[in-house]
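Entry for the shared binder. Reason: the reviewer on the internal report wants the predicted structure included alongside the sequence.
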Amino acid sequence: MNSRTKTGLEILQVAAGLGILGDVLLRQMPWGLNVLLFNLAFAVGLVLLLRRHAPERLTGQTYGLLGALVFFASMFVWRDAIQLRIADTFAIIVILGVLFLPTLKISAKIAGVLQYAIGVIWAGINSAFAPFAILASDIQWTEMHASGWRKHLMSAVRGVFIAAPLILIFGALFMAADAVYEGWIKSVLNIDFENLFSHGVIFGIFAWLTAGYFRGAVFAGVAETQAETRPVGSVPFSSAEVSTQTESSPMMKVRDDSGEHPVTLPNDASVVEHINISDPPNAEAETRAEASVPGNTSDPKKNPWSWANIDNSFVPGFTLGTVEVGVILGLLNLLFLSFVIVQVRYLFGGFELVQNTPDFKLAEYARRGFGELVAVAFIVLPVLLGGHWLLKKDKPAAAKLFRILAGVQIVLLFVIMASAVQRLVILTGPLGYGMTTIRLYPLIFMSWLAIVFVLFAGTVLRGARQYFAWGALWSAFFVLGSTHVLNPDKFIVETNIALMNQGREFDAWYNSQLSDDAFPPLWESFGSLNEKEQQIVARRFAERYCQKQEEQDLRSWNFSRSNATKSLFENNEFVAAFGGCSGRIPAYRLQQ
């Protein structure tokens, strides 16, 4: 059994274990502790396989990304907001893709945004299709020694596969022939086949995808890497050559160690004959052994193509020179500048401007403007990245002009982003309409964009583009982690309750529909709500109380849900008075 077969079998074993864990843990909803346990087992399995078969890929970057993966998986245990859970899932998928970059001979630290996307796609392709390679080519089934219990086991498996269809056919006929026998068979084989099928499907999906990912992480690029590490010009020895070398005399070994080797001249000529031969006019230099004579540099060989060397050379017709850069970014900067100049009083006019402008409503001013300005900030980033990537390499003037115009555009963009934040402050302030998720999360996203543009100016515009994507990735992780600390749903409810205490209307239905992260401030301020608002919130409490009676499973444990469950169960009489598990509030109460 060769090493590749052993590695393939180990991958299948680890994947089968994770398939069982996936079926046992992740079939339970809603997700919580089970996500952390599964991802922790996944990370441990990947580290063990890489340590045994590809230790060169266990770098500090790998451990850092795996740590981030476990961190975002642990957030399923801490927070309950669906937006955060979606963001955590997306972060885990991105991390799995970035972890795959070494298989493409790309260092994650100096890779680009496009290469990160390629890593995610390549990881997905391997997860879906690499198991075929494990079963068909990696594992040499014919080389596996069938002896002892293995031989009998394989024979038994073959016998079961042959007998199974016959048993099904004859069994069905016997059951159709006798009702008593049919009843006895059904009582003996009292199996929930639908439930069994669901277990098999979930196990198969997780085992299959895990095996494909591990196969790509361990095997992909290994052969090429080994070939590249062989000294240039070396040729693998055959067994006969090896035996001849081992049987060589001590003098031959001294010659090999000293580097003295026999010199062979063209046409087996002697040294004197070779010196006396005159070279013909315009004769081409003969091919010599590497490092003996410097090669002809007039026709250098092109470097082989790889994902690590993606540039704009394969789209020469779409590269940008000095004129193109000046026209494109110049026009965009003029547009941005015109918006800032013409709208300066609207950008920073504040609530007083809204009050003094006829037929100009606060909702139109703040809500509409905020969304459009966030979209502008988001679109500028790929425009600048793509424009820099398309710059002509032989035009340093174009690169210099790009740095100047891009810097101006970033400054103008920060002014526009400040305007967007100011509009949101008005919309959610004491005279506004309160805080919601669709207002808070875009603000957080724009905060991350501000960090990204600072990184862009400090890396891309200073000639260090290779560090931009790595910095942007970890800044996204930092912002997402900080968002978990902020606890958005709780922050939204606390903000809206504070506005209610200042005289603003409180949307009880919306705030009660938020996740269990928002439960503590809503529960504590229940007494300060009016009767109608209390009835709306109580109905939601009753619904949660009934749901949590059905969710008492350790696999779904979550900190926020656990605290909410504890409070509701300790005050179940209070919840039951407003409808209990029926989830209904008496009609007369709503009419009062």
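Summary line for the report: The mean pLDDT is 81.
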